[in-house]
């Protein structure tokens, strides 16, 4: 009989496989089932992504914000920053709330400032470039940030 951890792992694997074949609804159900067994930040982060693809803003926000809290509680700055970048995008794209989006982006900047260069630094540069072009209408800044993101990549 599988342990709770083993069952969560199997549900996560099934969810990831569903995501790979664009089975967003199936993935969401796998992650929700995993959450019923054990609430972990990685399950919540995965649920947030599946919900995002389904345009389910409520689930996306709840899952990602809770994942952020749990990653912060674990002291996992890199993962918390990654989720903060996603939440910044969510506030901008789902709700058009630039101020809240900017707040989440600033959180990601603060968390990543303490770390050596990781992919999340590039993702944040790319996000900042998106904001520069869409919200600030500054193509020069957007191009520079894009170049910095590509260099990190």
Query: Beta-sheet strand percentage?
Result: under 5%
What separation lies between the terminal Cα atoms? Answer: 43 Å
Task: Please give the count of helices.
Answer: 8
Q: Pick out the low-confidence regions.
A: none
Write the CATH fold name: Serine Threonine Protein Phosphatase 5, Tetratricopeptide repeat
- How many strands appear in the DSSP assignment? 0
- Compute the CA-based radius of gyration: 16 Å
Number of domains: 1
Largest sheet: none
Order of helices and strands: HHHHHHHH
What is the average of the pLDDT values? 96
C-alpha geometry: globular
CATH superfamily: Tetratricopeptide repeat domain
CATH architecture: Alpha Horseshoe
Which structural category fits the helices and strands?
A: mainly alpha
Please describe what this structure looks like.
- The structure is a single chain.
- By secondary structure, the protein is an all-alpha fold.
- It has one domain (4-115): Tetratricopeptide repeat domain (Serine Threonine Protein Phosphatase 5, Tetratricopeptide repeat).
- Helix content is 83%, strand content 0%.
- Helix 5 packs antiparallel against helix 6 (98-113).
- The longest helix has 19 residues, at 77-95.
- The radius of gyration is 16 Å and the shape is globular.
- The model has no long low-confidence stretch (mean pLDDT 96).
